[in-house]
Amino acid sequence: MEKLAQPNLNDQIQSMMVTFKKGHLLGIDIGLSAVKVALLTPLKKNNFRIERFCHLPLSEAAIIEDEIQKPSEITELIKEGIERIGYKDAICCIGIDGPNTMTKRLQIPDGSKEEIEDNVLWESEQYIPFGADESELDFQVLGDVPGDDDVKDIIVSAAKINVIESYTQVVTTAGLKPKVTDLKVFALNNIFESIYYDNLAALEVGTILIDFGAQSTKILVYRYGAPVLTKEIILGGVLVTEEIQRQMGVSYYEAEDLKINGDQSGNLPEEIMPIIEQHLSNLMSEIKKVLNFYIASGSSEPVDYCSITGGSAHLPGLVETLSEVIGIKAELIDPFKRIEVSNKISKEEIEIMRTCGLVSMGLGMRKI
User: Fold this and answer.
1) pLDDT for 206-244, tens place per residue?
2) What strands lie across the sheet with 226-233, from one edge to the other?
3) 223: left (phi > 0), else alpha (psi -120 to 50), else beta?
4) Could you tell me the domains of the chain?
5) In terms of DSSP bridges, do strands 63-64 and 67-68 run parallel, antiparallel, or are they unpaired?
6) CA angle in degrees (0–180, nearest 5) for 22-346-251
7) Contacts of 295 (CB under 8 A, 6+ apart)
8) E strand or H helix at 122, and its extent?
9) By C-alpha distance, which of 67, 105, 83 is closest to 234?
10) Dist. CA 145–CA 284, nearest whole Å
């Protein structure tokens, strides 16, 4: 695994100079297959305009699960993204996910700020599989539990410290100042709330959000203004690519191209469809388990909407299979129903954002 050189004194001084800057942050989504960089401007009524966007492909195995294997490559891509966007402010928000992150909805007795914090820390320890002592933990009070003013509804997030540090270092070495480190599932929540700001039915009745990524599938059940369940399944589109590579004896990049674009005629080879069908079968089984857990945990209220995104959401048959499995019509999220687009963004970039850019845009909605 590569190691990055430590920043010199001048770099450290420059980093300190941006510590006091405030405003909206550059969103940086470092994924398994690409680095996505998004710059947004806030408008009125919880709306935004996407000013610039970059999608920068990563080489194979640059990241394995949530561990960075090729930090210098990622740093160089971030630098390229900053240059192409023309970003000058240096402050940014980075997203992390993977097996060394966790979210949990808790109900905690009301009290002073210190008492609530102590109770959250005490209750959360049992749910952090990678150890509370090695983690950074944060929480947000969502409000009172309905019918009980003495109990607070809390959502807790945690991530392993060394994972946060590794992602922070590649961004810092690229010349940026990470002001916020967020979980990608919450970035998805942010952009969903913005897109569906005027659709109270989707926001209040209940929606399942699914991000079909390269490395994992993120699931969020949203109701009454907040996520009530989040889950990450370590099954993503890269498994299809790797299986195509193995069975057809082609390179990783050739396999990825076959999966996305098909053969020279634009058709999927016969060998690929069974691979995709098996992947979808495994994935739908895991999604069904998550929803069954949601029901078993005490929710008798139905989820009436299903919104999906992610590059792997375009696998042949995925939308139809998912709709059948969950009994709800699944629809691709269109971020541009509410988010305006700058004329500096190309049609190609718009199509990439529509498929793969939602997390980076959700990160770019954060401000300090």
Assistant:
1) 889 999 998 899 999 988 777 888 889 999 999 999 999
2) 226-233, 217-223, 207-212, 305-309, 330-332
3) beta
4) 199-335 (3.30.420.40)
5) antiparallel
6) 100
7) none
8) helix 113-124
9) 67
10) 32
Classify each residue of 111-129 as buried b or exposed e, where b means 16 or more C-beta atoms within 10 Å of its C-beta. eeeeebeebbeebbeeebe
- Joined together, the tokens standing for residue 360 give 């980076």
Q: Cα–Cα distance between 135 and 212 in angstroms, integer?
A: 26
Is 90 exposed, middle or buried, given 0-12, 13-18 or 19+ CB atoms closer than 10 A?
buried
Sign of the torsion formed by the C-alpha atoms of 11, 12, 17 and 18: positive
Supply 233's token pair.
């399944």
Contacts of 264 (CB under 8 A, 6+ apart): none
Q: If you search the block for the tokens 């699931």, which residue do you land on? A: 219
**CA-based angle 92:94:97, to the nearest 5?**
170
Q: Are 171 and 72 in contact (CB under 8 A)?
A: no
Of 6-10, 104-108, 225-229, minimum mean pLDDT range: 6-10
Cβ pair 38, 49 in contact under 8 A: no
Residues 98 and 163: beta-carbon distance below 8 Å: yes
DSSP states of 40-64: EEE-STT-EEEEEEEEEEPPTTSEE
Angular region, 63: left φ>0, alpha ψ -120 to 50, beta rest: beta
Mean of the per-residue pLDDT values of the chain: 88
